[in-house]
Amino acid sequence: MTAITLIQGDITQQSVDAVVNAANSSLLGGGGVDGAIHRKGGPAILDECRDLRASKYGKGLPTGQAVATTAGNLDARWVIHTVGPRFLTGEDRSELLASCYRESLRVADELGARTVAFPAVSAGIYGWPMEDAARVAVETVRATSTAVEEVRFVLFDEQAYETFARQLR
């Protein structure tokens, strides 16, 4: 049984086996969580991302998929990069969002990670409403069979934390 915990804070400060990055498909850094992880993790993460782009992901990492790199200077062994979908009014893309969590947990299992820190994937600049992002995240993690012992949702502000807390109740 996977324990789900919530933390209000900075995902780059977490001491876990794997930190999940809400990446963009280029894998080359960006804003929000992605930029913070690349800045704090240092150049080793970007170097491995460039290698992935040069080999397996020439057109970028597809939405809903996940891939791992070193965690560089983070207090983790790996960063699992996943590309969340942009929220589009009138189009249900929640299966793509759920896939981000399932695929990240699959990669974590392949790596042997037992503790994984997730941000609220797609709930930042990709515009996913926090209430629905939290629902998809919590339901998907609960429904996914994994050897991960702790999934930690690391929420940047009090509002996001409270929204996830409601979903856990």
From TrEMBL:
| Residue ranges of domain Macro in the record | 1-169
Source species: Streptomyces spongiae
Protein name as it appears in the record: O-acetyl-ADP-ribose deacetylase
> Which InterPro entries does this chain map to?
Macro_dom, Macro_dom-like
SMART domains associated with the record: A1pp (SM00506)
Q: Which Pfam families match?
A: Macro (PF01661)
